[in-house]
Amino acid sequence: MFPKPIGWDALAAIGRFLAFVYTYHYLNWFSKTQVIRWHEVGRARLGVVAGLYVASVALYAIDYRMGIVALYFLSLLHVLLELPLDLRTLVAVTGRFAPA
Fold first, then answer.
1. Distance (Å, rounded) from C-alpha 73 to C-alpha 65?
2. Residue 3 — φ and ψ, nearest 5°?
3. How far apart are CA 96 and CA 30, in angstroms?
4. 92 with 34: CB under 8 angstroms?
5. What average pLDDT does the segment 58-78 reach?
6. Do residues 30 and 87 make contact, with C-beta atoms less than 8 angstroms apart?
Protein backbone atom coordinates (compact mmCIF):
# COMPACT_ATOMS: atom_id res chain seq x y z
CA MET A 1 0.00 0.00 0.00
CA PHE A 2 2.80 2.40 0.80
CA PRO A 3 5.70 3.13 -1.59
CA LYS A 4 8.30 3.25 1.16
CA PRO A 5 8.65 1.83 4.65
CA ILE A 6 6.75 3.86 7.20
CA GLY A 7 7.48 4.29 10.86
CA TRP A 8 5.46 3.79 14.00
CA ASP A 9 4.30 7.42 14.08
CA ALA A 10 2.75 7.15 10.62
CA LEU A 11 0.99 3.90 11.54
CA ALA A 12 -0.32 5.47 14.74
CA ALA A 13 -1.61 8.48 12.77
CA ILE A 14 -3.39 6.19 10.31
CA GLY A 15 -4.90 4.25 13.22
CA ARG A 16 -6.12 7.45 14.88
CA PHE A 17 -7.68 8.61 11.62
CA LEU A 18 -9.45 5.29 11.07
CA ALA A 19 -10.72 5.32 14.66
CA PHE A 20 -12.11 8.82 14.11
CA VAL A 21 -13.84 7.80 10.86
CA TYR A 22 -15.31 4.67 12.47
CA THR A 23 -16.54 6.57 15.54
CA TYR A 24 -17.96 9.43 13.47
CA HIS A 25 -19.84 6.99 11.25
CA TYR A 26 -21.68 5.48 14.21
CA LEU A 27 -22.23 8.74 16.07
CA ASN A 28 -23.64 10.20 12.85
CA TRP A 29 -26.50 7.70 13.08
CA PHE A 30 -27.86 9.56 16.11
CA SER A 31 -28.63 12.52 13.85
CA LYS A 32 -30.48 10.23 11.44
CA THR A 33 -32.82 8.46 13.85
CA GLN A 34 -35.70 10.87 13.28
CA VAL A 35 -35.15 10.87 9.52
CA ILE A 36 -35.02 7.10 8.98
CA ARG A 37 -37.24 6.13 11.92
CA TRP A 38 -35.24 2.96 12.60
CA HIS A 39 -37.06 2.55 15.91
CA GLU A 40 -40.28 1.96 13.92
CA VAL A 41 -39.00 -0.97 11.85
CA GLY A 42 -41.72 -3.46 10.99
CA ARG A 43 -41.49 -7.18 11.62
CA ALA A 44 -41.08 -8.00 7.93
CA ARG A 45 -38.08 -5.71 7.51
CA LEU A 46 -36.58 -6.90 10.78
CA GLY A 47 -37.00 -10.47 9.51
CA VAL A 48 -35.16 -9.61 6.29
CA VAL A 49 -32.27 -8.06 8.23
CA ALA A 50 -32.08 -11.06 10.58
CA GLY A 51 -32.20 -13.41 7.58
CA LEU A 52 -29.35 -11.55 5.87
CA TYR A 53 -27.32 -11.76 9.06
CA VAL A 54 -27.85 -15.52 9.42
CA ALA A 55 -27.13 -16.04 5.71
CA SER A 56 -23.91 -14.02 6.02
CA VAL A 57 -22.66 -16.06 8.96
CA ALA A 58 -23.61 -19.28 7.17
CA LEU A 59 -21.80 -18.15 4.02
CA TYR A 60 -18.65 -17.52 6.03
CA ALA A 61 -18.97 -20.97 7.60
CA ILE A 62 -19.42 -22.64 4.20
CA ASP A 63 -16.84 -20.70 2.19
CA TYR A 64 -14.84 -17.95 3.85
CA ARG A 65 -13.67 -16.42 0.56
CA MET A 66 -17.22 -16.25 -0.78
CA GLY A 67 -18.32 -14.67 2.51
CA ILE A 68 -15.67 -11.97 2.19
CA VAL A 69 -16.71 -11.19 -1.39
CA ALA A 70 -20.43 -11.13 -0.58
CA LEU A 71 -20.06 -8.94 2.49
CA TYR A 72 -17.64 -6.61 0.72
CA PHE A 73 -20.34 -6.14 -1.92
CA LEU A 74 -22.97 -5.49 0.77
CA SER A 75 -20.63 -3.00 2.46
CA LEU A 76 -20.11 -1.12 -0.78
CA LEU A 77 -23.85 -1.16 -1.44
CA HIS A 78 -24.44 0.17 2.09
CA VAL A 79 -22.13 3.13 1.46
CA LEU A 80 -23.64 3.95 -1.93
CA LEU A 81 -27.23 3.67 -0.72
CA GLU A 82 -26.46 5.79 2.34
CA LEU A 83 -25.44 8.85 0.29
CA PRO A 84 -29.03 10.02 -0.44
CA LEU A 85 -29.85 9.50 3.24
CA ASP A 86 -26.90 11.69 4.21
CA LEU A 87 -28.22 14.47 1.98
CA ARG A 88 -31.74 14.08 3.38
CA THR A 89 -30.34 14.22 6.92
CA LEU A 90 -28.32 17.32 6.10
CA VAL A 91 -31.47 19.03 4.84
CA ALA A 92 -33.48 17.92 7.87
CA VAL A 93 -30.85 19.00 10.40
CA THR A 94 -29.86 22.33 8.83
CA GLY A 95 -33.13 23.23 7.14
CA ARG A 96 -31.29 24.01 3.92
CA PHE A 97 -29.47 22.21 1.11
CA ALA A 98 -25.90 23.25 1.96
CA PRO A 99 -24.27 23.93 5.32
CA ALA A 100 -23.71 27.56 6.32
1. 13
2. -70, -25
3. 19
4. yes
5. 91
6. no
